[in-house]
Design a protein that fits this description.
mainly alpha; Four Helix Bundle (Hemerythrin (Met), subunit A); 6 helices; about 0% strand; binds fe (ii) ion
């Protein structure tokens, strides 16, 4: 995780980094469920991962990625990251009970994707975007647990930060 440039102190990026940790933790439970060979345990653990991962990727794409992709310097890389979101969907769906190889394909792709964001795109965003850009990112990013509708708050609004991590 990036701990050098302070990009995690930007609210949206701090949220995304925290969600990465939640997703990785849920992936550990998924791996245990796959190894158990129990279809019910796998279905439950897969649903937890999906319930964290898809709101997260939608939030990334609808806010930060949309604003950053306007800069042609980042457009190709963001298209790659969006493609990886779709690949992760396919790899997660392909995991069957006891299938360690499929689990490893998903987990490796997930960790590599998260590393590109935490240690690549997010620090780059902290440098590339200015104040009005962040206001826009903030305004068009759906909250984590509100059904995906964007809300408008002032940056640094404590209510926003609290809501983003409830539930
Ligand atoms: Fe992503
Ligand atoms: Fe992410």
């Amino acid at each position: 995780m990036c701990s050098y440039c302070g990009c995690d102190s930007i609210e949206v990026i701090g949220r995304f980094m925290a969600e990465h940790v939640e997703i990785i933790n849920a992936t550990g439970d998924l791996r245990a469920a796959v190894l158990s060979g129990d279809p019910g345990a796998l279905a439950a653990a897969r649903a937890v991962v999906a319930g964290l991962l898809w709101p997260h990727t939608v939030a990334e794409e609808s806010g930060l990625f949309t604003v950053m992709a306007r800069d042609e310097l980042y457009a190709d890389h963001i298209a790659t990251l969006c493609g990886e979101h779709e690949t992760l969907d396919t790899l997660l769906a392909a995991i069957a009970p006891g299938d360690r190889a499929a689990m490893a394909r998903f987990e490796d792709a997930l960790r590599e994707h998260i590393d590109k964001e935490d240690n690549g795109l997010f620090p780059a965003a902290a440098i590339a975007l200015d104040g009005p850009d962040w206001v826009e990112v903030h305004a068009i990013t759906p909250h984590s647990h509100d059904g995906g509708e964007p809300h408008v708050h002032a940056p640094g609004d404590e209510h926003h930060r609290a809501v983003a991590h409830q539930g």
